[in-house]
Design brief:
single chain; mainly alpha
Length: 239
């Protein structure tokens, strides 16, 4: 069953995912079950599902032909916090901390008991605290008007480290953006390859059909030739 996906297998995959979602089961379990049924790898099934889902969103004719309800196959889109939301969250957590709550308890209360949301709030707060501490330069306190050469050197090296860190962060962000764009380009290319595979499958089917028709025509010509030869032979015998 490996290789090109038939329309029947595609329909089975989307039907199976739909049934698992409606039953409240994990989508990955649907991929695993489909992989066992068709002798594929679960990761390959997962990748094909999402690539095919991207293709179907712009191919209404194929969606109709396969009988797939795309409203039941929406991707989960991760929505991050805006800068305003992040600052509001941090402020609320800090207020809870001043009231004597732990970070975990404060996030739990602010999430309304939603564990996933609580973890998001907690991770966002801790990441913010870590970034703040990483940008702070600490120096030993000296009496006023007594700045030594070592203090100046320490301040200089601290500034150098901070500049290096900022440059490194900018470089990491640039690399991450390039990686994201590359991944999008790869996904688009894979989707196009999938479309080409389907077109090739259709051409193979047409070729086999034409080959079969050609064999039938050859058989008819042969039978007609034999009949003609037999008729001529009988005519000569009568003569």
């Amino acid at each position: 069953m490996k290789g090109v996906w038939s329309d029947g297998e595609v329909k089975d995959l989307f039907k199976q995912v739909q049934e698992f979602k409606l039953a409240g089961k994990a989508t990955k379990d649907a991929f695993l079950q489909h992989a066992k049924t068709y002798g594929r790898k679960a990761n390959s099934v997962r990748n094909y599902y999402y690539h095919e889902l991207d293709c179907l969103t712009s191919d209404a004719d194929r969606v109709k032909r396969l009988g797939i309800d795309l409203s039941l196959h929406k991707k989960n889109q991760f929505v991050g916090f805006s800068e305003e939301e992040k600052q509001a969250i941090i402020t609320k957590i800090q207020q809870k901390l001043q009231e004597g709550y732990s970070v975990r308890k404060a996030c739990y209360l602010l999430s309304g008991g939603d564990v996933k949301q609580m973890l998001r709030l907690q991770n966002k707060f801790r990441a913010n605290q870590k970034n703040q501490h990483s940008n702070i330069l600490f120096f030993r306190k000296k009496p006023a008007n007594k700045i030594s050469e070592s203090d100046v050197n320490g301040l200089f090296m601290g500034v150098v480290k901070l500049v290096k860190k900022m440059a490194l962060d900018e470089a990491k962000n640039a690399v991450a953006e390039e990686k994201t764009q590359a991944n999008l380009a790869i996904r688009k290319l894979v989707a196009q390859l999938g479309q080409k595979d389907r077109e090739l499958e259709f051409l193979k089917t047409d070729y086999l059909s034409l080959k079969k028709e050609n064999a039938l025509l050859k058989k008819k010509v042969l039978l007609a030739t034999c009949a003609k030869a037999k008729s001529l032979a009988e005519s000569k015998e009568k003569a």
